[in-house]
């Protein structure tokens, strides 16, 4: 196991946890639904890039992360299909709320994104710990 890869994974999980904490503040305190969705998506994105690193996979494109995660981890049965759906859904939600939709996201949709991001990050951390890619703490 490569020490640099393990450090990268740890850093990405820390970024995921920070983005998730930001999403919760934006939801609970600021009531910024677009901001909440953005940070919830980035929590999932960072966790997905951490797990891709276990296979020496990386890409500079968000669509590449979504695709590789589905192909390398979901389709091969290494993680639940639900995680693939969460990553895809939050990617789409962020795209719509940040770039395409003239309508503001709702409190309900933002709250769902936070819940899904919590589940995704938690399950990815469990996967990484079980594979000895991440230390428990």
Show the helix and strand layout.
Blueprint: H1 3-30, H2 33-53, H3 62-74, H4 81-100, H5 107-130
Number of distinct beta strands: 0
What ranges have pLDDT less than 50 throughout 5 or more consecutive residues?
none
Report the major sheet: none
Secondary-structure-derived class: mainly alpha
Rg over CA atoms: 15 Å
Describe the structure concisely.
With 137 residues, this protein is an all-alpha fold. The longest helix is centred in the N-terminal third of the chain and has 28 residues.
Please give a handful of descriptors for the protein shown:
137 residues
What this model shows, in words?
The longest helix is centred in the N-terminal third of the chain and has 28 residues, at about 5-30. The protein is built from five helices and no strands. The two termini are about 20 Å apart. The model has no long low-confidence stretch (mean pLDDT about 95). The chain has helices at about 5-30, 35-55, 60-75, 80-100, 105-130. The protein is mainly α and about 140 residues long.
